[in-house]
Amino acid sequence: MKHTEDAFDRSLNAALASLPQPRPSAAFSRGVLAAWGRRPAAAPVWPLAAALTLSSAALAAAALSFTPSIASVAPAAARAAALLQLAGRAALHLLPDARGGAELSAAAVMAVALFLTLSLPAVPKTRPTGAKS
Amino acid sequence: MSEPLDKDADIVRRCLAGEEAGYADLLERHQGRVYAFLLRLAGNAHDAEDLAQVVFLKAFRSLASFDPARPFHSWLFAIAHHAALDFLRARKANLSLDHDEDPIDPADGVDGPERLAEVSLDGALVERLIAALPPLYREALLLRHVEGLSVEDVAQALGLPEGTVKIRLFRARELMRRKWEAFEKDETREGLRP
User: Fold this and answer.
1) Which among A109, A92, A12 is positioned nearest to A56, based on CA atoms?
2) Any idea what the Cα angle at residue B39 is, between residues B36 and B44, rounded to 5°?
3) Model-level pTM?
4) What is the tens place of the pLDDT at every residue in A24-76?
5) Radius of gyration of chain A (CA)
6) In sequence order, which residues have a C-beta less than 8 Å from that of residue B133 and are 6 or more positions away?
7) Which residues contact residue B45 at a Cβ distance below 8 angstroms, ignoring those fewer than 6 apart?
8) Is residue B77 a contact partner of residue B83, using CB atoms and an 8 Å limit?
9) Is the pLDDT of residue B191 over 90?
């Protein structure tokens, strides 16, 4: 790749260095800034944190009061999957440019917590087989 | 650290602190270079503006990942490089885009490596020679010789080893020389016709 600079190289260097710099149209920067201004505002973290805390507390309270039956696990899992899917879609709708997984993860955890909170009280208490009323 | 480096890093800090005017400052300082680079890669103003918009929006969203120890424009050119490559791949502008083979065709040039004493290349001819280069060579040449980046910065922008950048620069110049020699030969032939 040994190369000796000659008249072509010198002329090419000079021509390249003096090439004019084309400018974008006057509307370009306005368009970029307008598009940037329309970005979804960063979601504040505290509502998510508060929701997580509340739903976790509710979940804990529910878990202390009710015991789910084995038979209720499968429908509960199906409902959890459906709810997670809905939560995911809602999160993607609210955060179209998906600035990271944090919001999505938080939304998913919140959905699970809410689901369990709402569903557990609906599960009837079961009695041990053979127990007398 | 040089003044422009400091200046860009300072503007980036302002943007990250929530000052909206900082984005306009970054745009004003760098839109010309980015647009010119993309125009010479995309080949038309409409696509170049669309691509430049994509580049700036992506850069604004990723400002937190910018390393202030590096020149802002080479970081920006790295984003522009990826955007342009995606665009050209979608357009399939050149089959050699994904391959770094030597596209120099000996038939393009004259028989020997003649070294002329006087050569005059005007801007319009150089633009044509640049446009005839495969995109991978074109972008290396533009960043090094038009935008004035160091070989190290070009390598960082393109995500390549410095040696590969030097090879691309060498081949780009050789291709331009051969095209120019072929062009000169045709011109002479045209001039000798009765």
Assistant:
1) A109
2) 145
3) 0.64
4) 998 999 999 999 988 766 655 666 667 667 766 766 666 666 555 666 667 77
5) 30
6) B141, B172, B175, B176
7) A22, A24, A25, B39
8) no
9) no
Answer with the residue of higher pLDDT: B45 or B185: B45
In the chain, the amino acid numbered B137 is Y
CA-atom Rg of chain B in angstroms: 19
What ipTM is given for this predicted complex?
0.74
Check pLDDT > 80 for residue B131. Answer: yes
**Alpha-carbon gap, residue A2 to A129, rounded angstroms:** 91
Q: Tell me, yes or no, if B150 comes closer than 8 A to chain A by beta carbon.
A: no
**Are A32 and B56 within 8 A, CB to CB?**
yes
- CB contact B63 to A (< 8 Å): no
Separation between Cα atoms, residue B184 and residue B121, nearest integer Å: 11
Secondary structure of chain A: what % helix, strand, coil (to 5)?
70, 0, 30
| DSSP 8-class letter at B145 | I
Three-class DSSP category at B135: helix
Placement of tokens 């008249």 in the chain: A7
Residue with tokens 């935008």: B147
Task: Report the distance separating Cα B25 and Cα B8, nearest Å.
Answer: 9
Distance from CA of B173 to the nearest CA of A (A): 8
Q: Which backbone phi and psi does B187 adopt, to 5 degrees?
A: -60, -40
Yes or no, beta carbons of A29 and B24 under 8 Å apart: yes
Residue A43 per-residue DSSP state: P
pLDDT for B104 equals 46
How far A30 CA lies from chain B's nearest CA (Å)?
Answer: 9
Among the partner residues B36, B57, B119, nearest to A21 by beta-carbon distance: B36
Least confident of A119-123, B99-103, B166-170: B99-103
How many other C-beta atoms can be found within 10 angstroms of the C-beta atom of residue B177?
22
- A33 vs A106, which has greater pLDDT? A33
